[in-house]
Amino acid sequence: MENLAQIAMESVNFQAIMPSLVLCCFGMVLLLVSVFLERGRTAPICWLSIIGLVVTGIISINGWNDPQAGFAGGVVLDNFATFFNLTCLIAAGLTILMSDSYLHREGYPVAEYYPLILFTTAGAMWMASGTDLMTIFLGLEVLSVSLYVLAGFFRGQLRSNEAGLKYFFLGAFSTGFMLYGVALLYGVTGTTKVAGIAEAIRLMPDASSNPMIIAGAILLSIGFLFKIGAAPFHMWTPDVYQGAPTPITAFMSAGPKAAAFAAFMRVTYISLDSLQVDMSAMFWVLAVLTMTIGNFVAIAQKDVKRMLAFSSISHAGYALVGMVAWNEVGFSGILFYMLVYTFMNIGAFAVLVLIGKQGEDNLTLDGMAGLGYKRPFLGVAMAIFLFSLMGLPPTAGFTGKFFIFAGALKAGYVWLAILGVLNSAVSLYYYLRVMVYMYFRDPVEDFSWVKMEMATIVSILIAIAGVLYLGVLPGPVMELAKLSIF
Amino acid sequence: MTPDVATPFPLLSLLLWLPLGGTLLCLLLRHSSNLCRWISLLTTLTVLVVALGMAVSSIGGSGWLFYEDAAWIEPFGIRYTLGMDGISLLLVLLTALLQVAAILISWRQKQRPALFYALVLVMETGIIGVFLSLDLILFYLFWELMLIPMFFLIGVWGHENRVYAAVKFFFFTLAGSLFLLLAIIWLYLLHGGQTGDYSFALDALRQTVLTPGQEMILYIGFMLAFIVKVPLFPFHTWLPDAHTEAPPAGSVDLAGLLLKTGVYGMIRFAFPLFPAAAQKSLPFLAILALVGIFYAAWIAYVQTDMKRVIAYSSVAHLGFVILGLAAWNQLAWEGSLLLMINHGITTGGLFVMIAMIQDRSGTRELGKLGGLWTVFPNLSAFFLLFCLSSLGLPGLANFAGEILVLLGAFKADPLWGGMAVAGVVFSAAYMLRVVQSALWGESKKLARNDDLAVREWLILVPLAALVVLLGVYPAPVLEFLREPVSLLLETGGMP
Amino acid sequence: MEAMLFYLVALVSVISAFFVTKCRNPINSALCLVTTFLCLAVFYVMLQAPFMAAIQIMVYAGAIMVLIIFVIMLLNIGSVGKSRYTHGVAGAIVLSFLSFIVAAKFIAGGTVSKAVGDISAEVVQSYGHTELIGKAMFTEFLLPFEIASILLLVAIVGAVILSKRKV
User: Fold this and answer.
1) Could you give the angle at the alpha carbon of B346 between the alpha carbons of B343 and B349, nearest 5°?
2) What are the structural domain ranges in chain C?
3) Fewer C-beta neighbours within 10 Å, C or N terminus of chain A?
4) Distance separating alpha carbons of residues B365 and B305, to the nearest angstrom
5) Does some domain include residue B219?
6) Domain count, chain B
7) Of chain A residues 15-54, which have a CB less than 8 A from chain C?
8) Cα gap A456→A458, rounded to integer Å
9) pLDDT digits (tens, 9 = 90+) for B438-469
């Protein structure tokens, strides 16, 4: 007892939390700086937050191949975490780039927006690197609370209010489930460490029929599945995605989703390894359900933002296919797919950010008519992103799906792969429809309100570069994804 | 697989990426439509010249005439492997030729010319890529790459019902090819699991040991994609719509080239990879082909839109091609491939001419046409020539291929041969109906009454010359086909 | 005896939780919530966690409830007409009874009473509960503890942004 301080310091390893630490510091400094800026002046904060992300990115990359554990095994910065960290950083960076002009247009130039995104990203990092259910849970909470606020950021807009409130209520509910799951697992194993749980379960003779373990695993999964937006816990997605500010929607669909996948994978793959057969079966059903529901409901949508929201459900389904596979190819496929999805989906939303009018009521299919001719650059960019979302070569969407389905087939899930492919075929319909409106319809409006904001264009260009690079030369990054599996 | 010819200069890559370079130039210089036009013409001409040069230099060669191989996506063992044998060489030549015609026929493209030419050139890269790839993923990449420009060509520059046709085309072909993708991945994993060597190379995958069940499933996965593209009855319904609604250049590309990629996929990939399953499927293919021949001929006969007639005639002709493949002997295969090339030239020519006629008369409806011969003697003469070739008049291109197919079919099964002969008669019926109602009879009101312009002569003369030449003396072409075909038939293999 | 007490307190907590959603007068709801919190505190005592029990009463039943009542009084909501959340009430009843049954099943089956992990009743007796918590918080769970501070910061910032009268 007397050497408590010593014990505490021994387990502290700042290396293991360096990226999130730096990000939090930046967030706090930015909060302070914003106090001294005049109201409505957000550009400096925007650029400082970009710098923060870049610095964090460099630190993360430096930690590659140098796994660091710390805080009594509560957190580990391995390649797996680094890969997801970078994915989230990219998502945050692209989001912030497109945000500043958007916030001004919509009339909410509030500087706190940027620190909140940084905190969200830090939360995502704790989820990706947490090896203790407590760390993961608190990371999830930091991420969620920031997102609740960001989703309801436009206080004057009813839709945004609805998004924030809905996300908050359902999110809190799902968090309750997750915490209950954690408690049950702790009750039965006596530890919250991911590896410790695995060991305790392995030593139990009848683990797969122990009601507490099963209940714990299911409840824990519900929490993650909610964040991922997998069916049947997807109900919040469309309303929240549609109501939230567009850059936040883009961010939510990529960064936090990737983080939830990261934590989910770590927990299932390590802790619940003994339950593989049952978990895989559960994921099989969920993956099929998620892909199908997302796709079929997306078909009926007239609003492009809402359509992308539903399609993001189906993309979560594709990624879940990798969880079903439960092998190296499938898991690294998820890593790769989340990165790919980050580029293509955020890119598509960035285009929407530019062509939206204030209030964004014009983001319907009809509103896209003739976009390809009036704004050739945006048209081509959107076309590239849509082709990627469809999964056509030579875009990243193809290589990503290829990776995932290869994992499923390798594990022998032929039917699952076939259903996934059929779903891809269904998804063609609604993505193509946007294309049809953009190119095959004569322009109704002249899109004169579209201002080609430099920062947003940069973010679109980065996304295009990412989509094409990962589509044409995916080799190196695929290699990294394979090295990232614990 | 060792390349017989070490190419110091990557000619295949040049052939493949040259059109894409033209695309980029077109997009960069999109404000000057004149410049774009010339760029695209020069690009296609250069490709044609390079391809001709390669053909001349490889006369009498054997094995892979040209071959390239480089690492691409290492973690999955995907390689950038291109190879050209006699079959690919001829198809690439056909592609290069028809693309020049496609550019020339759309010379006066008013609506968004830069984008139009750019897409035509992208398509050329896609089609040439399909004919050259020897790595299955690379093949799939080009297979899909063909789709995107065609979708836009139909959807943006097509006729009245274009959106429907474009979406239908995209759906049918993509849905088919997704199964191809699955089958490719599964085959790759089976092969990798057996040998530990994870590779998408065609040659390596042929060594995979498969149970009959697996082989059949994989074969069906491959064939679905190819059959839709060919298209074989009953997967042909996208074709009449797409052909009819596409702009002239699109129709030429569709009929002349895209359909051929399906057949090429069968002989290059599906049959060699799964020989046993292929053997079992031959009767079914033959039946579908025969049904297609009669069905398409019947439907073609009642069409009133000239483009639709030609579109259905394509289904019928491709039926002959597939029948030849199903006969599975040297004679029939050579005939099939020859017919494929000749059909490309003939039908390409027909679509070009329909565009010219529509330009002058303002309609494609047979009922509203008539008496063209008296007003446009030159144009009508060419049209008659192509029509006669299409119906299989001896001495013209299509006949040479059809007769070989028929002989081969008789050899395989006299019943098939006999039925197919009847199909030839049918094709005469619908083509002569077109000739009769368009060229003869009473003259109708016309928009213009000038006969062929210089540009149009330039398109038609080479095509017509080829139609006659290949009809009278197809030996040089058959020379290129002999060795690859016998290799494919005997060992299911390649050089 | 212990089981009897547990069931009694559990029943009270579930019923009062139900009335939190059922009552139309917000003040009554708040008071029902206090009852629930108090019952939870009893559970902590029964689990040999006196420190948690004290914290539960001080923080939740004390500070937070005072705040809630304060807000209710300030906003002067009064009684809302008809309750709009009938679905929610039904769901709450079902859920709370389900969880009650699950918990009861575990206790009856004795699964939970099997001690797992390092912290057994003897350890708690010898060290003292408060000390154990302090130790855990500053060694094993140092990082989550610190993350919680960020969480609070985010929550505060968010609350300010969403409720400030003018941005």
Assistant:
1) 140
2) 1-114, 115-167
3) N
4) 5
5) no
6) 1
7) 17, 24, 28, 31, 39
8) 5
9) 888 777 777 777 778 888 888 888 888 988 88
CB neighbours of residue C4 within 10 Å: 8
Contacts with A, C 89-128, CB within 8 Å: 99, 102, 105-106, 111-112, 115-119, 127
Residue B387's domain comprises 282-495
Instruction: Please report, for residues A55, A360, C149, the alpha-carbon distance to residue B229 in angstroms, rounded to integers and kept in the order given.
Output: 51, 41, 61
Residue A117: predicted pLDDT: 94
Q: Give the rounded distance of the alpha carbon of A389 from its chain centre.
A: 15
Chain B contact for A415 (CB, 8 A cutoff):
no
Report yes or no on B472 lying in a domain: yes
Residue C91 clears pLDDT 80, i.e. is over it: no
Q: Are strands B78-84 and B66-73 parallel, antiparallel or unpaired?
A: antiparallel
Helix, strand counts (H, E) of chain C? 8, 0
Rounded Cα distance, C5 and B473, in Å: 104
Q: Which residues of chain C neighbour A76 with C-beta distances below 8 Å?
A: none
Question: Is residue A251 a contact partner of residue A153, using CB atoms and an 8 Å limit?
Answer: no
What is the helix (H) or strand (E) element at residue A68, kind and residue range? Answer: strand A68-70
CA distance A289 to B229: 31
What angle, 0 to 180 degrees and rounded to 10, lies between the N-to-C axes of helices B162-195 and B238-245? 130
User: Any residues with CB less than 8 A from the CB of A32 and at least 6 apart, and which?
Assistant: none
The position carrying tokens 């850059």 is: A247
Q: What is the residue extent of each domain of chain A?
A: 4-483
**Is it the case that chain B and chain C have 3 or more CB pairs lying under 8 Å apart?**
no
Q: Other C-beta atoms within 10 Å of C92: how many?
A: 17
Put simply, the answer to whether C118 touches A190 (Cβ < 8 Å) is: yes
Crossing angle of helices A376-390 and A414-435, in 10° steps, is: 160
Does some domain include residue B164?
no
B129 lies in some domain: no
Coil, helix or strand at residue B79: strand
Structure tokens that stand for B392 in this block? 């299989």
Tens of pLDDT, residue by residue over B298-348, are: 888 888 888 888 888 888 888 889 988 888 888 888 889 999 999 989 998
For chain C, the C-alpha Rg in angstroms (whole number) is 19
- The C-alpha torsion from C11 through C12 and C18 to C23, rounded to 10°, is 160
Scanning A326-392, the segments in alpha helix (DSSP H) are: 328-355, 371-374, 376-390
DSSP-assigned letters across all residues of B161-205? THHHHHHHHHHHHHHHHHHHHHHHHHHHHHHHHHHS----BHHHH
pLDDT tens for B34-49 read 888 888 888 989 989 9
Q: What is the ipTM of this complex?
A: 0.88
Contact B304, B367 (CB under 8 A): yes
pLDDT digits (tens, 9 = 90+) for C123-164: 666 666 778 888 888 888 888 888 999 999 999 998 888 887
Helix (H) or strand (E) holding A77: strand A75-77
What is the residue type of B371? G
CB A485 within 8 A of CB A328: yes
- From the list C105, C142, C167, the residue facing A108 with the nearest CB is C167
Cβ of A142 within 8 Å of Cβ of C151? The answer is yes
Give the chains touching C; criterion: ≥3 Cβ pairs < 8 Å: A
B167 touches chain A (CB under 8 A): yes
Tell me, what amino acid is at B214? Q
